[in-house]
C-alpha cells in the first residue's frame, strides 16, 4: 500500500479499464479473493490511521464496495475494535462476493445496526457505501448515511472512492462524502485528482490487490520534472529568449508578472511588448526586462507568451504572432480573442510551431462554445476536445490542472492548492511555460513541468507569508 504524493508519477485508470483489470484479476485469483484482500487492506489502513480507535462506524452500501466494508469490519472485530455496521443492501439482490462477505461478517459477530451512530463517540468512520458503481444521485438512506459521515467529528476513510465522486471525471452530481483519506483499490482513478476529487478524497492511498497485471492507462498523475543542471560553459543564449505580448492600458501588471516569472524561471533574455502605449514603467523592480514596441519583436526567434492582460487590443497582433512565433503560449485575452474569431481559430489550427494554450475553465468554455459547468463536468474530456480542435498542447487550469495533446493520454498535475486562487497567478504560469519553451523543452514538457513547479511553489509556501502573484514569480528558480 502506498500513500500518493507528488514525488513520482502514477498511472491512472478510469472505470472501464478498472473493470477490465478487475475481471482479469478475479479470473486469476479466484472468486472472493480480491474482496478479501480489499477488506484486509482497508482494515490495516484504518488501524494505521487511528491505532487507538475503539468505536468504528462502517457505512456499507448495496454492492461490492459494501462487501469491502464488511470484510474490513470482520478484521477490525478480530483485532479488538468495536465496529458497528450500517448495511444498506438487499439480500435478494446481492452479488456473490458481497453475499460471501456478509456471511463472514455475521459469522464473526460484527454488530449490525440501523441506528445512526452517536456522532461524537466515533473514533473513525469508514465509507463503504458506493465505489465504482456510483450510478446516480443518492437519495433516502444512502443520502442520510452520506450526511452522517460528513457530520462526523471522526476522520472518514473512504474505500475505493468517496461515495458520490465519479471515478472518470472528478465530479459529483449529488450528495458526496468528504473523506480525510481514500484507499483506491486495483487502480488509481483520474477523478480522485481533478475537479472535486482533491477536496472529496483527502489523502489518497493505493493498493493494487494483485501483482504485475495491468491494462493501458487513461491518464497519468504527473511526477516531478527532471533536474536541469546548467552546463558550466553555457551562456544566456543557451536558455533562449522570451517575449511577453500583453499589458493593455490598465493591465500592464499582468505582462510584468509573466515576464518576471519567465526571468526568474531561467529564461536567458526577457522582452516585454506592452500594448499600453503609455510611458509608465512598472518594471523598476526588474531592470533586467527589456521593453520593446510590439512591431520590434523578432517573433520567429522568440518564445512568446501572448495574452497576459492584453485586453481586446491583443486580437490585432494575433495573426502575426500565430504565423511567426517560434514557440507560443496563448493565455487569457489571447484565448478570448481566438474564441471570438474563426479566422484566428483557423490560423491556430494551421500553426506548425510548438504551441501551448493555458485556459482556465471559463476560457476553455468560450473556446469550445460550451459553459464552465460543462467543462468542469469532465475536465479531461474538455481538455482533450480543445487539443483535438486546435492541434495544440492544452493546459486546463484549476484544481487538478489537466495537460493534454492530440494522440496522448492526459496528465493531471498533482501539485498546487487554493492559495493560488489569487489574481495574476495565471500570468505567472504563462511566463513559466514560456521560459521552458525558450530553453528547448517540447510544448508537452513545458506545460507539464511549468504546472508542476508552479503548484509546488504554492505547496511549500511558508504559512505566514502572503502568496501574491509577484512573490510567486520571484520564487521560481
Ligand atoms: N468484485 C470484487 O472482487 C472487488 C470489488 N471491489 C469493490 O467493488 C466496488 C464496485 O462494486 P459494484 O460494482 O458492486 O459497485 P458499488 O460501488 O458497490 O455500487 C453498486 C451498487 O450500488 C447501487 N447504487 C448505485 N448508485 C446508487 C444510488 N445512488 N442509490 C442507491 N443505490 C445505488 C447499485 O444498484 P443498482 O444501480 O444496480 O440499482 C448497486 O447495487 C469497487 O469500487 C470496489 O470497492 C474491489 O474491492 C476489488 C474487488
Ligand atoms: N484551488 C486551486 N488548486 C490548485 N490550483 C489553483 C487553484 N486555484 C487556482 N489555481 C491555479 O492558479 C492559477 C490561476 O490562473 P488564472 O485563473 O488564469 O488567474 P489569473 O487570470 O488571475 O492569472 C492557475 O494556474 C490555477 O491552476
Ligand atoms: K466508498
Automatic annotation (TrEMBL):
<dbReference type="InterPro" id="IPR000631">
    <property type="entry name" value="CARKD"/>
</dbReference>
<keyword id="KW-0521">NADP</keyword>
<feature type="binding site">
    <location>
        <position position="65"/>
    </location>
    <ligand>
        <name>K(+)</name>
    </ligand>
</feature>
<feature type="binding site">
    <location>
        <begin position="131"/>
        <end position="137"/>
    </location>
    <ligand>
        <name>(6S)-NADPHX</name>
    </ligand>
</feature>
<keyword id="KW-0413">Isomerase</keyword>
<dbReference type="Pfam" id="PF03853">
    <property type="entry name" value="YjeF_N"/>
</dbReference>
<feature type="binding site">
    <location>
        <position position="426"/>
    </location>
    <ligand>
        <name>AMP</name>
    </ligand>
</feature>
<feature type="domain" description="YjeF C-terminal">
    <location>
        <begin position="219"/>
        <end position="477"/>
    </location>
</feature>
<dbReference type="InterPro" id="IPR017953">
    <property type="entry name" value="Carbohydrate_kinase_pred_CS"/>
</dbReference>
<feature type="domain" description="YjeF N-terminal">
    <location>
        <begin position="18"/>
        <end position="217"/>
    </location>
</feature>
<protein>
    <recommendedName>
        <fullName>Bifunctional NAD(P)H-hydrate repair enzyme</fullName>
        <ecNumber>4.2.1.136</ecNumber>
        <ecNumber>5.1.99.6</ecNumber>
    </recommendedName>
</protein>
<dbReference type="InterPro" id="IPR004443">
    <property type="entry name" value="YjeF_N_dom"/>
</dbReference>
<comment type="function">
    <text>Bifunctional enzyme that catalyzes the epimerization of the S- and R-forms of NAD(P)HX and the dehydration of the S-form of NAD(P)HX at the expense of ADP, which is converted to AMP. This allows the repair of both epimers of NAD(P)HX, a damaged form of NAD(P)H that is a result of enzymatic or heat-dependent hydration.</text>
</comment>
<keyword id="KW-0630">Potassium</keyword>
<keyword id="KW-0511">Multifunctional enzyme</keyword>
<keyword id="KW-0067">ATP-binding</keyword>
<dbReference type="InterPro" id="IPR036652">
    <property type="entry name" value="YjeF_N_dom_sf"/>
</dbReference>
<comment type="subunit">
    <text>Homotetramer.</text>
</comment>
<dbReference type="InterPro" id="IPR030677">
    <property type="entry name" value="Nnr"/>
</dbReference>
<feature type="binding site">
    <location>
        <position position="307"/>
    </location>
    <ligand>
        <name>(6S)-NADPHX</name>
    </ligand>
</feature>
<feature type="binding site">
    <location>
        <position position="254"/>
    </location>
    <ligand>
        <name>(6S)-NADPHX</name>
    </ligand>
</feature>
<dbReference type="Pfam" id="PF01256">
    <property type="entry name" value="Carb_kinase"/>
</dbReference>
<feature type="binding site">
    <location>
        <begin position="64"/>
        <end position="68"/>
    </location>
    <ligand>
        <name>(6S)-NADPHX</name>
    </ligand>
</feature>
<feature type="binding site">
    <location>
        <position position="360"/>
    </location>
    <ligand>
        <name>(6S)-NADPHX</name>
    </ligand>
</feature>
<keyword id="KW-0456">Lyase</keyword>
<feature type="binding site">
    <location>
        <position position="163"/>
    </location>
    <ligand>
        <name>K(+)</name>
    </ligand>
</feature>
<feature type="binding site">
    <location>
        <position position="127"/>
    </location>
    <ligand>
        <name>K(+)</name>
    </ligand>
</feature>
<comment type="similarity">
    <text>In the C-terminal section; belongs to the NnrD/CARKD family.</text>
</comment>
<feature type="binding site">
    <location>
        <position position="160"/>
    </location>
    <ligand>
        <name>(6S)-NADPHX</name>
    </ligand>
</feature>
<keyword id="KW-0479">Metal-binding</keyword>
<feature type="binding site">
    <location>
        <begin position="397"/>
        <end position="401"/>
    </location>
    <ligand>
        <name>AMP</name>
    </ligand>
</feature>
<comment type="function">
    <text>Catalyzes the dehydration of the S-form of NAD(P)HX at the expense of ADP, which is converted to AMP. Together with NAD(P)HX epimerase, which catalyzes the epimerization of the S- and R-forms, the enzyme allows the repair of both epimers of NAD(P)HX, a damaged form of NAD(P)H that is a result of enzymatic or heat-dependent hydration.</text>
</comment>
<keyword id="KW-0520">NAD</keyword>
<comment type="similarity">
    <text>Belongs to the NnrE/AIBP family.</text>
</comment>
<feature type="binding site">
    <location>
        <position position="427"/>
    </location>
    <ligand>
        <name>(6S)-NADPHX</name>
    </ligand>
</feature>
<keyword id="KW-0547">Nucleotide-binding</keyword>
<dbReference type="InterPro" id="IPR029056">
    <property type="entry name" value="Ribokinase-like"/>
</dbReference>
Amino acid at each position: 500500500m502506498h500513500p500518493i504524493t507528488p514525488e513520482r508519477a502514477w498511472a491512472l485508470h478510469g472505470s472501464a479499464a478498472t473493470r477490465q483489470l478487475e475481471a482479469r484479476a478475479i479470473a486469476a485469483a479466484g472468486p472472493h479473493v480480491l474482496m478479501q484482500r480489499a477488506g484486509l487492506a482497508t482494515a490495516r489502513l484504518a488501524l494505521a490511521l487511528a491505532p487507538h480507535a475503539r468505536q468504528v462506524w462502517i457505512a456499507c452500501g448495496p454492492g461490492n464496495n459494501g462487501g469491502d466494508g464488511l470484510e474490513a469490519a470482520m478484521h477490525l472485530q478480530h483485532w479488538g475494535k468495536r465496529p458497528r455496521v450500517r448495511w444498506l443492501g438487499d439480500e435478494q439482490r446481492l452479488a456473490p462476493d458481497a453475499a460471501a462477505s456478509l456471511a463472514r461478517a455475521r459469522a464473526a459477530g460484527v454488530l449490525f445496526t440501523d441506528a445512526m451512530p452517536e456522532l461524537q463517540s466515533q473514533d473513525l468512520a469508514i465509507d463503504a457505501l458506493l465505489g465504482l458503481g456510483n450510478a446516480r444521485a443518492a437519495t433516502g438512506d444512502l443520502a442520510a448515511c452520506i450526511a452522517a459521515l460528513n457530520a462526523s467529528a471522526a476522520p472518514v476513510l473512504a474505500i475505493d472512492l468517496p461515495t458520490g465522486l465519479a471515478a472518470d471525471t472528478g465530479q459529483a452530481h449529488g450528495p458526496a462524502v468528504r473523506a480525510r483519506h481514500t484507499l483506491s483499490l486495483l487502480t488509481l482513478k483520474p477523478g480522485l485528482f481533478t475537479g472535486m476529487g482533491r477536496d472529496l478524497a483527502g489523502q489518497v492511498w493505493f493498493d493494487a490487490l494483485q501483482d504485475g497485471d495491468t491494462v493501458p492507462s487513461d491518464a497519468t498523475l504527473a511526477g516531478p520534472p527532471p533536474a536541469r543542471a546548467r552546463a558550466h560553459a553555457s551562456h544566456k543564449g543557451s536558455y533562449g529568449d522570451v517575449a511577453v505580448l500583453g499589458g493593455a492600458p490598465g493591465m500592464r501588471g499582468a505582462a510584468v508578472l509573466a515576464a518576471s516569472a519567465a526571468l526568474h524561471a531561467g529564461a536567458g533574455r526577457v522582452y516585454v511588448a506592452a500594448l499600453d502605449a503609455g510611458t509608465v514603467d512598472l518594471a523598476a523592480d526588474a531592470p533586467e526586462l527589456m521593453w520593446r514596441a510590439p512591431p520590434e519583436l523578432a517573433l520567429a526567434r522568440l518564445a512568446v507568451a501572448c495574452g497576459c492582460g492584453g485586453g481586446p487590443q491583443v486580437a490585432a497582433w494575433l495573426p502575426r504572432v500565430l504565423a511567426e512565433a517560434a514557440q507560443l503560449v496563448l493565455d487569457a485575452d489571447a484565448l478570448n480573442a481566438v474564441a471570438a474569431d474563426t479566422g484566428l481559430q483557423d490560423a491556430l489550427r494551421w500553426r506548425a510551431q510548438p504551441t501551448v494554450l493555458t485556459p482556465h475553465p471559463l476560457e476553455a468554455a468560450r473556446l469550445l462554445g460550451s459553459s464552465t459547468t460543462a467543462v468542469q463536468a469532465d475536465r479531461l474530456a474538455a481538455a482533450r476536445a480543445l487539443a483535438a480542435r486546435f492541434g495544440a498542447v492544452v493546459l486546463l487550469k484549476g484544481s487538478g490542472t489537466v495537460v493534454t495533446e492530440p494522440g496522448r493520454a492526459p496528465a493531471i498535475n498533482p501539485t498546487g492548492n487554493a492559495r493560488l486562487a489569487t489574481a495574476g497567478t495565471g500570468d505567472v504560469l504563462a511566463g513559466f511555460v514560456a521560459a521552458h519553451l525558450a530553453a528547448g523543452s517540447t510544448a508537452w514538457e513545458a506545460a507539464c513541468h511549468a504546472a508542476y513547479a508552479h503548484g509546488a511553489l504554492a505547496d511549500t509556501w511558508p504559512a505566514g507569508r502572503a502568496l501574491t502573484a509577484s512573490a510567486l514569480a520571484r520564487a521560481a528558480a
